[in-house]
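Subject: design request, 508 residues
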């Protein structure tokens, strides 16, 4: 018969051993979990770097700067390629880039600041601050609010970007806003979304009128400096550094250095200059890890509130204060792309997970957006298996081949023209008597060449909604401008050749 007391004693004596075993397992797990987490993070970073390098090669972007923040820390930051291809200077966290339309969130935040201070209301008619800015829809004057400008529901047409003047003048912002005078609205204010970059130039001018201070100075003092963005600038005229990347545009299937015109009147919509060090601070502010007396989290959250009164501008995506807000599958992302003639950027944040990604590039390309989205996908553990196609890159490739064909035809016609001229000089060809038949042929070819040239000049306005060749020269790949001049040159060579054939004949 078993002794109950002995059995109980044995059970008690085994308890400490079980507890010890449990404690040892817990300690081992607690030691292992950070190592596993680090290994997973390192694996994600390796995947991200492979992905970026692959996209970098495909995109032809000279230089990229990438930063990832998470839960108040900068967890990844690296440059790829060159800030300047000619000097082979590499991109670093200090390299400055124009950030394009991701500037809009800074301008919108300044508007919200001023509202919080009681200096304006978003429901105010813009004419309260700019009395002469009376815009009409179907011939009737309209009330356009500050809020509608901020959410791109003002009714101002997207093609108004074409008329933004190149200017370095101190009053360039006013000159830009004045281009809207006598321009009819494209839709009734508040009825629907239409992205028009000049909306934010109007907001910038409102900021000037309210604060009695230049827009660039206000943003520098009240937005950038308070959050520590000391190496960022509001426009090229503020720039006090030589570490800005050289800007490039695509042309003939490779990067082409290009100095774009200065659009000082477009700064509120697209011309803050910054680097990945400072942009990391901007992302931390948006995710709630930086707060100042002028920009508390209530203000930041207000800037993330989308306008749900209109249809989404993209799938499940509405516009907030300089941010697109995408809702889907129970997840929310804040995102915005930026493109200038020779720079591009993309910011994407997931507030619930406290993660943010920013990409800066010294070439105008949609690859910047694709890279930013891909980096976020990988960081969140999703596979990225798609191959991005940039429309400008595809257009440039097609035009490069067309230009090669035009060049070959031009060389042939030029050779034939020179040959006819030389034969005429050597008396191997002689002038024909001028008659009605030859006059008709000359007039027909003159008319044909004139029509070709006029169609060429008018093509952008007819096909692209009012775009001009001057705008195309700045914004499109270099091959597009080359096509314009090559067709003009080919038309002239063709005309000279036909003229010589009609006016001369072989001597007997």
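Subject: RE: design request

Done. Sequence follows.
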């Amino acid at each position: 018969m078993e002794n109950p007391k002995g059995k109980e004693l044995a059970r008690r004596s085994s308890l400490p051993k079980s507890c010890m075993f449990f404690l040892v397992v817990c300690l081992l797990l607690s030691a292992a979990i950070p190592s596993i987490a680090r290994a997973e993070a390192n694996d994600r970073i390796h995947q991200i770097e492979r992905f970026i390098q692959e996209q970098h090669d495909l995109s032809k972007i000279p230089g990229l700067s990438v930063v990832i923040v998470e839960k108040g820390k900068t967890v990844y930051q690296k440059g790829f390629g060159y800030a300047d291809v000619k000097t082979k200077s590499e991109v670093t966290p200090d390299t400055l880039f124009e950030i394009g339309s991701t500037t809009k969130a800074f301008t919108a935040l300044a508007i919200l600041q001023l509202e919080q201070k009681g200096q304006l209301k978003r429901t105010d008619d813009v004419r309260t601050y700019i009395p002469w800015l009376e815009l009409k829809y179907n011939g009737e004057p309209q009330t356009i609010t500050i809020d509608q400008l901020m959410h791109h529901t003002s009714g101002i047409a997207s093609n108004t970007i074409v008329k933004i003047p190149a200017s370095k003048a101190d009053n360039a912002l006013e000159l830009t806003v004045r281009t809207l005078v006598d321009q009819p609205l494209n839709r009734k204010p508040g009825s629907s979304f239409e992205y028009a970059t000049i909306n934010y130039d109007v907001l910038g001018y409102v900021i000037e009128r309210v604060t009695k201070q230049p827009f660039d100075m206000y943003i520098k003092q009240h937005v950038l400096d308070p959050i520590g963005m000391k190496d960022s600038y509001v426009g090229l005229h503020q720039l006090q550094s030589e570490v800005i990347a050289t800007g490039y545009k695509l042309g003939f299937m490779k990067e082409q250095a290009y100095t774009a015109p200065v659009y000082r009147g477009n700064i509120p919509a697209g011309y803050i200059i910054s680097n990945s060090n400072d942009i990391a601070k901007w992302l931390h502010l948006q995710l709630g890890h930086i707060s100042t007396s002028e920009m508390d989290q209530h203000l930041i959250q207000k800037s993330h509130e989308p306008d749900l009164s209109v249809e989404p501008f993209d799938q499940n995506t509405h516009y907030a204060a300089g941010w697109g807000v995408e809702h889907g599958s129970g997840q929310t992302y804040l995102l915005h792309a930026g493109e200038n003639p020779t720079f591009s950027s993309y910011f994407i944040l997931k507030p619930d997970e406290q993660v943010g990604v920013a990409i800066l590039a010294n070439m105008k390309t949609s690859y910047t957006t694709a890279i930013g989205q891909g980096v976020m996908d990988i960081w969140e553990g999703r596979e990225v298996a798609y191959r991005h196609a940039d429309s400008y890159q595809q257009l440039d490739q097609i035009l490069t081949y067309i230009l090669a064909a035009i060049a070959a035809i031009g060389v042939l016609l030029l050779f034939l023209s020179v040959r006819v001229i030389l034969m005429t000089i050597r008396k191997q060809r002689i002038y024909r008597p001028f008659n009605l038949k030859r006059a008709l042929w000359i007039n027909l070819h003159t008319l044909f060449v004139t029509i070709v040239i006029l169609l060429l000049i008018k093509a952008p306005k007819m096909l692209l909604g009012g775009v001009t060749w001057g705008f195309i020269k700045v914004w499109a790949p270099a091959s597009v401008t080359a096509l314009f001049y090559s067709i003009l040159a080919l038309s002239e060579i063709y005309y000279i050749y036909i003229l010589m054939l009609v006016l001369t004949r072989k001597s007997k």
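The chain is about 45% helix and 15% strand.
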